[in-house]
Amino acid sequence: MQDFRKLRAWRQALALAINVRKAVARFPRHGYAELKSQMTSAAESIVHTIVEGCGAASQREFARFLEMSIKSSMELEGQLLMARAYGIMDRSEFRSREEETIDVRRAVINLRKRVLATLDGSDDRDA
């Protein structure tokens, strides 16, 4: 088990979730509730899945949770593009959140690589 609070990827993901929630709060009040909800959910899912993975019984299982976080970051990136295409997110906000999402994904990918490197291939012992 890991202490998620010590993970740079978790801290970055938490900041991203907060920033996404602030960004979607500026969306028009009507017409975009589902996209707003999905974006918030995807951003928070990155955070929650890292935390859940830290409680995994093995490093292999932890890596699987990190893979799910990576997928949530991809989902969020697609939603950011949609918000920009709809014209409900200005260019500056879009670029900032997109860059932040990519940075979080890189951090989670690197963490996953480190976790998988601890496996010796013969079993699922915690490293």
Explain what you see.
The protein has 127 residues and is mainly alpha-helical. The chain has a single domain (4-117), classed as 23S rRNA-intervening sequence (de novo design (two linked rop proteins)). It has helices spanning 8-24, 33-54, 59-86, 91-117. Helix 1 (8-24) runs antiparallel to helix 4 (91-117).
Task: Detail the topology: elements first, then pairings.
Elements: H1 8-24, H2 33-54, H3 59-86, H4 91-117
Helix pairs in contact: 1-2, 1-4, 2-3, 3-4
Task: Throw out a few tags for this protein.
single chain, 127 residues, mainly alpha, de novo design (two linked rop proteins), 74% helix, disordered C terminus
Structure classification: mainly alpha
Q: How many individual domains?
A: 1
How big a fraction of the residues is strand?
under 5%
Helix content range: over 70%
Taking the alpha carbons of the first and last residues, their distance comes to 9 Å
Question: What's the helix-strand series?
Answer: HHHH
Low-confidence stretches: 122-127
Task: Please write the CATH class name.
Answer: Mainly Alpha
Could you describe the largest sheet, including whether it forms a barrel?
none
**Discrete helix count:** 4
Mean pLDDT: 94
**Taking Cα atoms only, what radius of gyration do you get, to the nearest Å?**
16 Å
Q: CATH topology, which one?
A: de novo design (two linked rop proteins)
CATH superfamily, by name, is: 23S rRNA-intervening sequence
Q: What is the annotated CATH architecture?
A: Up-down Bundle
Shape: elongated
Number of strands: 0
